[in-house]
């Protein structure tokens, strides 16, 4: 299969670039690379916890480098990921409130997607795992084939179940992991989104608009408007919650 | 819809605590712990509230100024109660509060050891206030001071998330009926809703702790009933969170607690995504 992938991101309005706490993988666009399997992910660090940017970045990187199938994700690799986080954040002395934040741990939503080629076929299979409220949609032509997790726009809240860098908080969260699988054909597109954009997408979709066309055409010859300009416009219209925003557009052929 | 304004560094909100430092606070605290006075309960409550508010606003680079915080003491006198180096200041950005406690004590805390047991961990615990118990209880004056400070804040921040005033007391005012001054505070508003006045009643009465009641019928004494009537109803969004956290609340529930903990109010504050499992 040939993979085209492009990440887009914008930090919460009023914040610095360096305060962006989502994460995505791959970090750079992929332009038609031929491969037999491909993994990608987005993650969303929780505002109210510290070092969640580091945790989100570790989650997407480890997920994409691991061989664990999405459909059997059981959190077995989590201790390794948590130890990495702990090593990074304890490198320097912390003030009293920093120590307490480290004790609480960082939290993040993650959505991981794995695409696999079927030898000698014109398509393949995909599988995905999600903890929290980052979402993906699979689009073929003008039809949305899959929405995962199957959230409607009213279901997004500021209090989702998230994956923690603190093992004590994860015993139940791993049970909240949602898994799914499907098949893909040439020219299918997958859009991976963190919650603010996913909520906008679902609302537009519920109102029978075609939000995937906006995402499909972004920064192409069909729509040269930069992603950040689109996000600012949507925020000004009140259509998008003020939060970090990430989109990973993946097309396969 | 009220109580939906974003709390951010560009549009911060305000927290004002009123702490009763009157002579009656030297009386025993009624939750059964031997030797503890109500003044100890007040000091514990305000230190824990400030600690939790600072932690809520802390990020890896430091403390973000989502709130400005004031503490008014009332007893021998009425006025700003922070110690040096914050002494005399009515409202202080939360980053300065977090960076300048009066001292930091070392304590031990039992934490989950990850293997089904508990282990002791040393933690640093900031202290801003020590117990004080002197003279009368000029609660009306304290509420009037609070009104003036909150009015000044609202002039400067007319679109902010409504300020929250938390009064920690045994309820035995000595300068008149505090109902009127309390109502004057509750009538203040930003474009996002009315100011919230909550009361934490620390009593010598050995009654069961009560949180966010919806009626004064079951309250143990007239001071509790008065403070209940002085308290703002919990806004709908706070009731929803309280329900999610297992509190029994209804539409009539008020921001009042009796011999209980009000730290949960800090969890009600929305500054962005909060993991539902974090307690």
Walk me through what this model shows.
The complex is a heterodimer of chains A (253) and B (279). Chain A has 253 residues and is α+β, with helices and mostly antiparallel strands. Chain A has a single domain (2-252), classed as Phosphatase 2c, domain 1. Chain A has helices spanning 52-65, 78-89, 96-104, 170-173, 195-206, 211-217, 227-236, and strands at 2-10, 22-25, 30-34, 37-45, 107-117, 123-131, 135-140, 143-148, 163-164, 178-185, 189-193, 245-252. The mean pLDDT of chain A is 92. Chain B has seven helices and 14 strands. Chain B has one domain (13-267): Rossmann fold (3-Layer(aba) Sandwich). In chain B, helix 3 packs parallel to helix 4. In chain B, strand 4 and strand 5 form a beta hairpin. Chain B starts with 12 loop residues before the first strand and ends in a 12-residue tail after the last helix. The A-B interface holds A 12, 14, 19, 44, 46-51, 53, 89, 95-101, 103-104, 107, 158-162, 164, 167-169, 172-173, 195, 242-243 and B 6, 8-10, 54-56, 58-60, 63, 98-99, 101, 104, 111-112, 114, 121, 123-126, 241, 244, 270-278.
What is the rounded distance between the termini of chain A? 6 Å
CATH architecture of chain B: 3-Layer(aba) Sandwich
The CATH C-level class name of chain A:
Alpha Beta
In whole angstroms, how far apart are the ends of chain B? 27 Å
The Cα radius of gyration of chain B reads 18 Å
Supply the number of helical segments of chain A. 7
The total of beta strands of chain B comes to 14
Strand content of chain B: 15-25%
If you average the pLDDT of chain A, what whole number results? 92
Q: Helix- and strand-based class of chain B?
A: alpha/beta
User: Main interface pair?
Assistant: A-B, 36 and 34 residues
Mean of residue pLDDT values of chain B: 89
CATH topology of chain B: the name is Rossmann fold
Order of helices and strands of chain A: EEEEHHHEEEEEHEEHHHE
Enumerate the spans of chain B where pLDDT stays under 50 for 5 or more consecutive residues: none
The tally of structural domains of chain B comes to 1
Whole-angstrom Rg of chain A: 18 Å
Quaternary structure classification: heterodimer
How many strand units of chain A?
Answer: 12
Fourth-tier CATH superfamily name of chain A? PPM-type phosphatase domain
Sheet having the most strands of chain A = 6 strands, antiparallel
């Amino acid at each position: 299969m040939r993979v085209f992938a492009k990440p887009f991101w914008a930090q919460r309005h009023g914040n610095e670039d360096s305060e962006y706490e989502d994460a995505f993988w791959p970090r750079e666009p992929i332009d038609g690379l031929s491969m037999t399997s491909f993994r990608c992910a987005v993650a969303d660090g929780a505002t109210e916890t510290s070092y969640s940017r580091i945790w989100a970045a570790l989650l997407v990187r480890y997920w994409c480098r691991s061989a664990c199938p999405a459909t059997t994700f059981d959190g077995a690799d989590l201790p390794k990921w948590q130890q990495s986080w702990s090593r990074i954040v304890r490198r320097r002395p912390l003030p009293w409130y920093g120590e307490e934040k480290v004790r609480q741990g960082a939290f993040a939503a993650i959505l991981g997607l794995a695409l696999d080629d079927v030898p000698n076929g014109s398509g393949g299979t995909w599988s995905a795992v999600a903890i929290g409220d980052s979402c993906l949609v699979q689009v073929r032509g003008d039809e949305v084939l899959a929405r995962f997790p199957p959230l409607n726009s009213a279901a997004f809240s500021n209090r989702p179940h998230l994956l923690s860098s603190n093992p004590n908080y994860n015993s139940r969260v791993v049970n909240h992991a949602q898994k799914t699988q499907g098949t893909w054909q040439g020219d299918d597109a997958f859009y991976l989104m963190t919650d603010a954009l996913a909520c906008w997408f679902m609302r537009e979709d519920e109102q029978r608009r075609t939000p995937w066309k906006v995402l499909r055409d972004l920064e192409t010859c069909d729509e040269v408007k930069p992603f950040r300009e689109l996000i600012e416009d949507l925020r000004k219209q009140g259509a998008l919650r003020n939060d970090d925003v990430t989109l990973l557009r993946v097309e396969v052929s | 819809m009220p109580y939906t304004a974003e709390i951010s560094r560009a549009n911060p909100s305000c927290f004002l605590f009123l702490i009763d430092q009157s002579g009656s606070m030297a009386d025993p605290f009624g939750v059964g712990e031997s030797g503890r006075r109500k003044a100890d309960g007040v000091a514990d409550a305000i230190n824990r509230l400030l600690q939790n508010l600072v932690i809520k606003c802390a990020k890896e680079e430091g403390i973000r100024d989502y709130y400005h915080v004031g503490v008014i003491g009332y007893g021998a006198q009425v006025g700003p109660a922070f110690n040096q180096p914050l002494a005399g200041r009515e409202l202080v950005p939360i980053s300065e509060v977090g960076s300048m406690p009066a001292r930091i004590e070392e304590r031990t805390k039992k934490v989950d050891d990850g293997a089904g047991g508990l282990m002791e961990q040393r933690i640093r615990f900031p202290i801003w206030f020590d117990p004080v118990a002197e003279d009368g209880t000029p609660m009306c004056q304290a509420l009037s001071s609070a009104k003036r400070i909150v009015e000044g804040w609202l002039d400067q921040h007319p679109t902010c998330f409504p300020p929250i005033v938390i009064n920690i007391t045994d309820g035995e005012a000595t300068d008149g009926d505090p109902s009127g001054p309390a109502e004057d505070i509750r009538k203040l508003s930003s474009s996002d809703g009315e100011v919230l006045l909550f009361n934490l009643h620390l009593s010598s009465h050995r009654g069961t702790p009560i949180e966010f009641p919806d009626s004064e019928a079951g309250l143990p004494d007239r001071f509790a009933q008065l403070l209940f009537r002085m308290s703002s109803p919990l806004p709908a969004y706070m009731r929803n969170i309280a329900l999610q956290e297992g509190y029994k609340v209804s539409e009539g529930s008020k921001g009042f607690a009796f011999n209980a903990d009000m730290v949960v109010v800090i969890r009600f504050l929305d500054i962005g995504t909060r993991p539902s499992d974090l307690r």
